Amino acid sequence: MSSNVRIEKLILNNYRNHNFIELEFKKNIILICGKNGSGKTNILESISIFNSNVGLKKSNLRELIKNNMKGPIELFGVNLLCQFNKRSLKVGLGLRKNDSNFKKILSFEGSKSKVDIDKFLNIFWIVPKTTFLFQNAPEDRRNFIDQMILATDRNFKKFLLLYEKYKKERMKILKSWNDSSSSWLDVVEQKLASAGIIICDARRNFIKQLNINLSEFNSTFPSLFIELSGEIDSILRNKPAIFVEDYFIKKLKENRKKDLLTGKTNFSANKTDIIVSDKLSGIDARNHSTGEQKMIIFSIIFSFIKFLESKINLRIIFLLDDVFSFLDKNHVMLVLERLDKLNVQTLLTDIRNDWVSKHPKLSSIIQQINIDDKSLKVDKI
Ligand SMILES: Nc1ncnc2c1ncn2[C@@H]1O[C@H](COP(=O)(O)OP(=O)(O)OP(=O)(O)O)[C@@H](O)[C@H]1O
Ligand SMILES: [Mg+2]
Question: Is the model's pTM score more than 0.85?
Fold first, then answer.
């Protein structure tokens, strides 16, 4: 069994509807159940926020603080006790007010300096909105793929952040143009193009692997094929990266005026959409039925799990929010069994838990937590 990170304890203080809650996770598969509005999704969100500033609800940090919290911001917090490489590690997340915004503060074993959480904790989630992937904007499809890459490639995040940084820097120079701007702009554009090519290439390699996995397992869609649609992606298919980088730089230079006028980077690594189609029929997933689209998403998730199986050191936790409302129960069960075998801790939410006992194979691997249980929420105030 491969080693992986595992959360053993989660403590929330003044997090959304939770005054105080302490949960102990003892198995790979944790089912959090409770009635509507009891705070199940909030619990998953509190974990997702460690790797992301917006989390699985795409909220801003201010919204995470319990309404009407009395007292200083230090009373808000998410604390995890993790197990990684046979070591127990304490990680915490708090907020600090910066002018009118909030800033995330991470702590590692009590220290707040230079916490590199991605080193051992990466969160991948599937939420009800994932079902609408093919109706959503290209950005959502791109993020879906990027989230999978991020979970296994720590450098990818670095380049995504650098790319955004250089993009902003370039726009700032364009807006305050003067005689000395040109050479400065050349340098920034070169850096932007270089980060952009690395990002496109990482996506291309990852999708290549997904396609191999998709063609290998017995899917309802044996000829499912994933492609990247961006101009950079299509050139990268036939030309070496160094050529594409030069082309990228040329386009950025050409577009300076246009980008300034429109306020955006018109030629970008993030103009890519993820096209999923049936190679035999040529039908784009967007044109498949709702049920078929769910199957396609399931197939992609399954091929991602297969991809994870080829990795030695995993640092990933899966969050599956309300998946039974949109994915077929038997398929979810298959996913859970695979994740358990892979030693990937998975937290899932559902209103009910009665289905667990009906699956003897699963009941031994699932820990059920009912958050309506008052003993979990001893009011500390
Ligand atoms: N900042 C906040 N302060 C207090 N309560 C909040 C805050 N943000 C959200 N809530 C409340 O948290 C409650 C729980 O939300 P959550 O989405 O976790 O419910 P859930 O258990 O997942 O429900 P469902 O089964 O319907 O998906 C909601 O009633 C919501 O109004
Ligand atoms: Mg919910």
Answer: yes
